Amino acid sequence: MKHLKNYLYIICIIFLLSGCNAKEATLQKYAMTATDLGFDTVISFIAYTENEAKYNAYEAKVKELFTHYDQLFSKYDTYPNINNIKTINEQAGKQPVKVDKDIIDMLLVSKEYGAISNNEFDITMGAVLNIWHDHRELAETDSKNTTVPTQEALEKANTYTGWEHIQINETEQTVYIDNPNTQLDVGGVAKGYAVEKIAQKLEEMGCEHAIINGGGNIRLIGNKPESEYWSVGIQIPDFHTLSTESLISIKISESKSFVTSGDYQRFYTYKDQIIHHIIDPSTLQPARHCRSVTVVTEDSGIADMLSTALFTLSHKDGQSLLDQLKETKGIEAGAIWVYDKTQPKEDDSDAIKVNNYDIVVSKSLQDDIVYK
Predict the structure, then answer these.
(1) CA distances (Å), 93 to each of 96, 126, 168, 339, in order?
(2) What does the alpha-carbon distance between residue 97 and residue 90 come to, in Å, rounded to a whole number?
(3) 3-state helix, strand, coil in the chain (%, to 5)
(4) Is residue 40 within 8 Å of residue 4, measured between CB atoms?
(5) Angle at 251 between CA 248 and CA 255, to 5 degrees
(6) At 250, which helix (H) or strand (E)?
(7) What number of other Cβ atoms are within 10 A of residue 171's Cβ?
(8) Is the pTM of this model over 0.85?
(9) Is the dihedral of CA 337, 229, 30, 13 positive or negative?
(10) What are 234-261's pLDDT values in tens digits?
């Protein structure tokens, strides 16, 4: 799991803040952490239940579904009797592929948020992202001989980007890519979508107090029973060390999702410059607006897509996108942007300075922030 360490970029910090009622006093805390459930990341699960048997049922479902969605959304691996994203890409220009409904649903919501974000979030950029992926893989093999792709190669690959090449037949439940060079890359949505679906399944099973952490994609279920709220910490964005401290914490007493995109998660160095994995669709280069952006909203899949989109936008344009979502779709989403001297703020927005970082917080979240 070569990228395992890079996904530990949000730290869940649980605080004991107040007493609990009689019912909640009977609940016990159970937890698990696993590195073999897929998505090339660490998965953790905490739940408060009346007994261990009930917790075990929840844990078993978490493990089952993470493995299932990892296989379903993989673009690198083939699995028996599963048509996944890799299958769709391999059949580009050849024939439609019959797929699971979850793939159809994920692609449709990705298309929707691509349009909403003016294609700042675009899963059809696979041809471009494959080029960057190959250069990053080579850098991990030989860190002394790193390279970056030419702009010419990137622009040629980008001619294959576009939803006009993706045909989704909901009735037949098929996906067809009509251009053999067009490729899907769902890395900016798959994990968040999976976490949300798993949380919804647990809620159907009766789970009332839990937290799922899918490699930094955090989804809360209900409140933390022995306190007024959960507290989720945002990690210090550090290229060189995997910090165990947080810059700030967000306090929440209801079901919410938290997803962070940052330049310190998957990267390599080329001529003393950090080359990270989040590519700006307008430049085809690593985005250079902030160090990290965290999105807080109800749905983990939406949070995942928005965090990617906002990372490729200025603070002003990112906040405008969040305002547009609230106005047109009734979706309340807030964000936290982190800057430092290597990536300073681009506007005069109010910021709090913490450990030499400037932190800008959406108005909707300001009352929930605990500064260190």
Answers:
(1) 9, 15, 14, 43
(2) 10
(3) 35, 25, 40
(4) yes
(5) 130
(6) strand 246-252
(7) 5
(8) yes
(9) positive
(10) 988 876 655 567 899 999 989 999 999 9
